[in-house]
Amino acid sequence: MADGQGDNPMEADVKMLKSPQMGLKLVHLDLKGAPPKMSYLREIFPLFEQLGADGILLEYEDMFPYHGNLQILRSPNAYSPSDITNLINLAKKHNFEIIPLVQTFGHMEFVLKHNAFAHLREMRLFPNSLNPHKEESMELIKSMIDQIMAIHNDIRWLHIGSDEVYYLGEGEESKQLIEHGQTNTDSLFLSHVKAVASYVIATYPSVKPIMWDDMLRNISMNKLKESMLDQLVEPMIWEYNADLDVNMMSLQIEKYQKTGFSQIWFASAFKGATGAAQCLTSISYHLANHLQWLNIAATLPRNTIHLQGIALTGWQRYDHFSVLCELLPLGIPSLAVCLQTLKHGEFSENVEELVKKSLGCKSLQLNFPSEDAGKFPGSDILAQVTEVIVNLQVSVDKLLNENIYIKGWFSNYHRKRKFVHLGIIQNFEGDARSVHAQWEAAVSKLRTAMERIYYPDAVEEWLEEHVNPALTRLQIFVKDMDETLASSTIN
Predict the structure, then answer these.
(1) CA nearest 109: which of 354, 304, 316, 321?
(2) What is the pLDDT of residue 488?
(3) By the 8 A CB rule, do 27 and 56 touch?
(4) 208: which strand partners?
(5) Peptide bond into 369 cis (omega under 30)
(6) Are 169 and 131 contacting, i.e. CB atoms less than 8 angstroms apart?
(7) pLDDT digits (tens, 9 = 90+) for 154-178
(8) Rounded to whole angstroms, how far apart are CA atoms 225 and 219?
(9) Within 13 A of 280's CA, how many CA atoms are on the CB side?
(10) With contact defined as beta carbons under 8 Å apart, do 300 and 251 qualify?
(11) Which residues contact 100 (CB under 8 A, 6 or more apart)?
């Protein structure tokens, strides 16, 4: 994942590229954290289409309605089969290509965390990666794919994940084979991915597998060519950094082309790539990333390699166990800028005006925070989250840490022992009640807005991480103040 801030994206040297040269533009919905209700998707899909999206990369994880022996994988809020049917119909209404993404090797935490499947871990202590040696592992993957394909029965591509397969080769079975010279980590990886891709192609001949490319990057050109993986998958080459190295990426693409890959995908990021606990989205950072991808697309040898499209990823968690990063509404302005930049081949004043019109805002701030949240589905959450993140902690700290009367006569020591000069309280009671009332009202408003879009567990998680630490501190202070006043004891 990327980390940092964007630098002068407007100054990037970008050739004008027409939209077809970038292929399909897919908006990635990462459902492993704060999955939106179907009602919100109905609201936001028209905006996606208006901004230039051609499809959805749908990463279900535990939001898919698995059944039978896989039912344990389902989140309590998992979409129902009818929800997904409605989602498919909604996508068709907006002429969106849907590409489901199912992890089949790495990032299997949502499966391998369960005791029923824990024995299929590559390493016993880590639920990240699947053990590729067990026959049951492959049967598990087949079942997951079959259940997804039963609903998505007219898709052209299926993304089989396969990124960041941590600890591969460190399990006992793998180590024994490696120590005896019977295999190595590259061979282990290629063997499993080929088995998964071969199953997809054999069972669903009209579907082509896509996979993340990171595990392929350090595999030698000869080994990749010998594997004939190019006959089975289309790699999705991902990089989310604002300072993406165009030359290095061009060399990587050239390597893939020389090993036989003729169809490739790119993957950028419009949010969720600048820190696991990031709350606000820096548009400039992600804009810079997309401008670099335009530069890379301009260097492609069009006669030997075809760019199928680009997925604009919007990560909601770094993995199944990490905290939430930016909520989807917080990333919509960035998505708008990035989609329009890809559509027009540049980010110009005219493009900026189109973005502002689409978002219903008068101004566009490329670096957070923005004072104008616009008027699009979820813009109220953008405005209220920004207010909370920017001002809540600051205002509570200013009250409790800087007020001389609180610091000098109403410290934790005084409050714990109710050893307080009641006359002193009048010097800060008004400010304390004002700040407390302000934030109770603001958080109540934010909760109501979030509950319209998200399920209760996502709302509670976000508030617990970003609101409760400061608000609870303030609530306890006011409670202590009230109890002290009620005691009417003057010391």
Answers:
(1) 321
(2) 60
(3) yes
(4) 157
(5) yes
(6) no
(7) 999 999 999 999 999 999 999 999 9
(8) 10
(9) 20
(10) no
(11) 58, 60, 148, 152, 155, 158, 159
pLDDT digits over 446-486, tens only?
999 999 999 999 999 999 999 999 999 999 999 999 998 88
* The overall pTM is greater than 0.90: yes
Is 392 within 8 Å of 308 (Cβ atoms)?
Answer: no
Contact at 8 Å (CB) between 210 and 159? yes
Residue whose C-alpha is closest to residue 409's, from 484, 311, 475, 339: 484
Q: Which two tokens stand for residue 459?
A: 């709302």
- Give helix 172-179 / helix 185-203 axis angle, nearest 10°: 120
What is the tally of helices (H) and strands (E) in the chain? 19, 10
Q: Tell me the C-alpha distance between 452 and 433, whole Å.
A: 29
Active-site entry in 59, 97, 164, 239: 164
- pLDDT value, residue 121: 98
Question: Nearest to residue 234, comparing CAs of 297, 156, 303, 324?
Answer: 156
Between helix 468-487 and helix 393-402 the angle, nearest 10°, is 40
Its sign, for the CA torsion 274, 280, 281, 284, is: negative
Contacts of residue 226, Cβ cutoff 8 Å, sequence gap at least 6: none
pLDDT tens for residues 46-57?
A: 999 999 999 999
The CA dihedral of 474, 478, 479, 485, to the nearest 10 degrees, is: 160
User: Count of alpha carbons within 13 Å of 198, Cβ hemisphere only?
Assistant: 10
Contact of 443 with 451, CB cutoff 8 Å: no
Burial state string for 452-482 with b = 16 or more CB within 10 A and e = fewer than 16: ebbbeebbeebbeebbeebbeebeebbebbe
- Band of the pLDDT at 371, cuts 50, 70, 90? confident
Six-digit token string for 415: 């409050």
State which amino acid sits at residue 120.
Answer: L
Average pLDDT, the chain: 93
The tokens for 179 are: 């120590």
Q: Which residue has the tokens 């002290």?
A: 484
Residue type, 476: I
Distance from the Cα of residue 378 to its chain's centroid: 17
164 assigned to active site: yes
